[in-house]
Amino acid sequence: MTAQAQSISRKQTLGSSGLLSWIMTVDHKRIGILYLVSAFIFFIIGGLEALLMRIQLAKPDNTFLGADTYNQVFTMHGTTMIFLVVMPLAAGFGNYLVPLLIGARDMAFPKLNALSYWTYLFGGIFMYSSFVYGGAPNDGWFSYAPLTEKMYSPTHGMDFWVMGILLLGLATTIGSINFIVTIIQLRAPGMSLTKLPLFVWTTFVTSFLAVFSLPSLTTAILLLLLDRQLGAHFYNTAQGGSALLWQHLFWFFGHPEVYILILPAMGIVSMVIPVFSSKPLFGYAAIVFSTIAIGFLGFTVWAHHMFATGMPTVSLLFFSADSFLIGVPTGVKIFAWLGTMWRGKLRFMSPMLFAIGFVALFLIGGLDGIHLAVVPVDWQITDSYYVVAHIHYVLFGGAIFGIFSGIYFWFPKMTGRILNEALGKWHFWIMFIGMNLVFMPMHVLGLEGMPRRIYTYGPGRGWEIWNYVETIGAFLIATSILIFIVNFFITILKAPQNDPDPWDGFTLEWTTSSPPPDYNFAEIPSVRSRRPLWDNKHPDLADWKKEEA
Amino acid sequence: MLRKLVVLAGATFLLSACQPSPSFLNPASSISGHVADLYNTILIMALVVFVLVEGALVLILIRDRHKEGDKLPHQLHGNTNLEIIWTVIPILLVIALFVMTVQTVNAIAAPSPKQGDLNLRVVGHRWWWEFDYTDLGIATANELHIPVGTPVQIALESVDVIHSFWVPQLSGKTDVVPNQHNTMWLESDQIGEFLGQCAEFCGTEHALMRFKVIVESQADFDAWVANQQKPAYQPQTEDEQAAYKELTGTCAACHSLDPSEIDTTKVGPNLAHLFSRSTFAGGSFDLNEENLRSWLKDTQSMKPGNDMEITIPQQQFDSIVEYLMKLK
Q1: Is the peptide bond before A146 cis (omega within 30 degrees of 0)?
Q2: Which of A203, A262, A374, B230 has its C-alpha lying 20 to 30 A from A368's C-alpha?
Q3: Residue A383 and residue B200: Cβ atoms within 8 Å?
Q4: 3-state secondary structure A105-167
Q5: Contact B123/B130 with Cβ under 8 angstroms?
């Protein structure tokens, strides 16, 4: 074999198919798919952990899980869903879509992109390996000090948590810088920032949030590591350390983190709703500015997680007022989505159903969240099941519904195959009903005085019936996810249709083949409006005429 | 009118279970009363928004469904006036919410300490509550007695990790933070027993860190105090002597039999008047002979992870149980 032939055959193995080609890839689309698949596997693991918790809590004084196991399971459920599922799912969509949406051939730094993915994967596997090395982390996803100190958490669980989070934070930082540079540098000719598709905007803002908030988390966990491994006293209250230092450092990251989780889903929904309404997004500028506003405000509200820690009244009221303000840009978005659907021609296909589900459920998460910003009410409901209800309306009703909307929407682009519609509708309705059965009663339980993170409760407080209903709902959600998995395999085993534009889409990704070639676009498109493909299809109604007028 | 209806519906809903609700929406103090009013007001505002927005959504979904042969809809890109309206209305709403928040924060703020207040220290331990009546020289655990209608000024301390003190019907939470002196206050206007529980995850047995507040008339409270101030029951028989020796010997490393010994470094609760309480082990089990026996046989199977790891010699077991049961 000549050297040349050798190099060609090597290129083919690395470049086209086979396991090795996926391991060696630096193609943004493959990295995006790797992110999505890995995160979905973690989603199943995190979901099984949720089921274990719901079985344990189905009846009072249950002994299905012991205290220690339950505490590991709830910690890993939260940590998994936030760091190993929702963030990487958004990163997966970002990787796959951002270059396609801005008319680029790849991300700015393809190798960094691969580094980011593999760091994430190993961070996740590393954290889970703690189960076989003496016990998983067990202090909750926000791991309050000084409970995390060695004297109270003597297993290696917290060390795995610290190192795992460090790796995941590194992956996110690398990925975020890559997104920022890609979006600034690689846009197609004519695609000014005012023409960016909404998902690109939310990825852009999310990346800044990650880059500016993660250092605070990194600091927090490194100090904890010094405490645990080298006997420092940052949080060790027995030696004069500060318990609240952790909380300030953690929530300065933790609150922007909430928007890191929800903004990409908002971006997805803002792409899906216009297509299935056959209308442009209503109030593009308002949505973009509200996204940026949420980004800024998100950095000023962290202490609303700490209302009960004994803060002075002035600080309480400052953080309360700021938290209320976030309601305004959030409201703007919801109205804009309604305005987009208003007098549209709505096609209720699976992506649209999940997007509508997002709007309906996210609204509830916004309205019950208002109660948590009201300081005296927060003193009652914080750290109760009410908060668990709220975060799940935002992160399950919001982020996960938005992500499923995106999966159904872009699956044909990624694979050339449309997911089965009937199964998609079953998935949606069972998940929608199950979701409300699990999380709506949690409001009642919180109001009825049930604290979060308890592995058991006694009978006679009126908590039994709601806990039982929630467990039924959890199994409904699990059923719906099973339906999705079946749908995935049925679809992927069929011959592809390779329809480049199955939904009558608006943006650049639908102008190239499904799945797109390695180089995305044979010719770099030039852009005149926010809906370039719409303009091609309807030259007389083209957006650029309005936008340039 | 609407407000009354919603409150009524909410109350019926919450009270539908046969026992009285432990919720702050069933308040037993002016603090929780104010907060319940505020909660209900905001709930009504939220419900109005909910009905309007979800109603609009459903209307749109029904009316604007795509039908075969439909023409393209009007390509509307936005409407500045509308967008200003739906920015300004929420701003006005949140200003109203903020004003209500400030009013309620002021209404429930702790009154300045005065003569006649009851001063208490609540100490969080993993996983039980120590209640020190510093002025009265008594220490007890897991059951907090207070007189009705008297302001109670509470200092909160933790000997280990963060806990949170929460009796929904009397007041919201205040965290019990090690190395930090937090305070709160209570004043119940209703005689009764109110359930509380630690609300900040504090490790293995966080779920079994419960307590109750017993609000009683001044006379009942005084009688309770008088009893708690008495020394512990002195041993009479030989068996009791032996038990007493053990309890003031080995057990004294963690437990005190002196009701006036207020010592937060003790790992376990003061036992001087153990059987004046109705629960034990962080308010988790009814205090009776049967439970006490199984507890002393194997504390770890009843509450895994707790600090009490003991084996009581067989010949002393019965006498210790019997002596403990006399500590009323």
Answers
A1: yes
A2: A203
A3: yes
A4: CCCCCHHHHHHHHHHHHHHHHHHHHHHHCCCCCCCCCCCCCCCCCCCCCCCCHHHHHHHHHHH
A5: yes
How far A235 CA sits from the closest chain B CA (Å)? Answer: 10
CA–CA distance, A262 with A403 (Å, rounded to integer)? 10
Q: Which of B77, B83, B201 has its CB closest to that of A140? A: B201
Residues facing residue B158 across a β-bridge: B124
Q: Please name the amino acid found at residue B146.
A: I
Can you list the alpha helix ranges (DSSP code H) found in A278-349?
A: 284-297, 313-341
Domain-embedded: residue A18: no
Amino acid (1-letter code) at residue B323: Y
Put simply, whether A144 touches B (Cβ < 8 Å) is yes
- Number of Cβ within 10 Å of residue B265's Cβ equals 6
Cβ-Cβ contacts under 8 Å for A217 (sequence gap 6 or more)? A165, A169, A249, A250, A253, A254
Instruction: Tell me the pairing of strands B192-197 and B210-216.
Output: antiparallel
Query: What's phi and psi for B215, nearest 5 deg?
Result: -95, 125
Q: Which domains, from first to last, does chain B contain?
A: 2-64+77-107 (1.10.287.90), 118-213 (2.60.40.420), 238-325 (2.60.40.420)
The count of residues in chain B is 328
- Closest residue of chain A to B182, computed from CA coordinates: A310
Q: Residue A401: count other Cβ atoms within 10 Å of its Cβ.
A: 28
Kindly provide the ipTM of the predicted complex, given to two decimals.
0.93
Range of the domain at A358: 24-548
Give dist(CA A334, CA B133) in Å, integer: 53
A256 vs A266: CA distance, rounded Å: 15
- Distance CA(B74)–CA(A345), nearest Å, equals 10
Task: For residues A82 and A42, give the distance between their C-alpha atoms in angstroms, rounded to a whole number.
Answer: 10
Query: Is residue A195 domain-resident?
Result: yes
- Is A469 in the B-facing interface, judged by CB distances under 8 Å? no
SS3 B132: strand
Quick one: closest CA in B to A459, which residue? Answer: B19
Q: Which helix (H) or strand (E) holds B146?
A: strand B143-147
Mapping DSSP onto H, E and C, the string for A475-543 reads: HHHHHHHHHHHHHHHHHHCCCCCCCCCCCCCCCHHHHCCCCCCCCCCCCCCCCCCCCHHHHHHCHHHCH
Query: Residue B193 is encoded by which pair of tokens?
Result: 């027993």
Phi, psi of A212 (to 5 degrees): -85, -20
Q: Are A465 and B18 in contact (CB under 8 A)?
A: no
Give chain A's domain count: 1
Closest CA to B295 of B315, B272, B320, B276: B320
The answer for A 349-408 residues in CB contact with B (under 8 A) is: 356, 359-360, 363-364, 367-368, 370-371, 373-380, 382-384
Can you give the pLDDT of all 549 residues of chain A as single tens digits? 344 444 444 444 445 678 888 999 999 999 999 999 999 999 999 999 999 999 999 999 999 999 999 999 999 999 999 999 999 999 999 999 999 999 999 999 999 999 999 999 999 999 999 999 989 999 999 999 999 999 999 999 999 999 999 999 999 999 999 999 999 999 999 999 999 999 999 999 999 999 999 999 999 999 999 999 999 999 999 999 999 999 999 999 999 999 999 999 999 999 999 999 999 999 999 999 999 999 999 999 999 999 999 999 999 999 999 999 999 999 999 999 999 999 999 999 999 999 999 999 999 999 999 999 999 999 999 999 999 999 999 999 999 999 999 999 999 999 999 999 999 999 999 999 999 999 999 999 999 999 999 999 999 889 999 999 999 999 999 999 999 999 999 999 999 999 999 999 999 999 999 999 999 999 999 999 999 999 999 998 898 888 776
CATH of the domain at A491: 1.20.210.10
Q: Would residue A10 count as lying in a domain? A: no
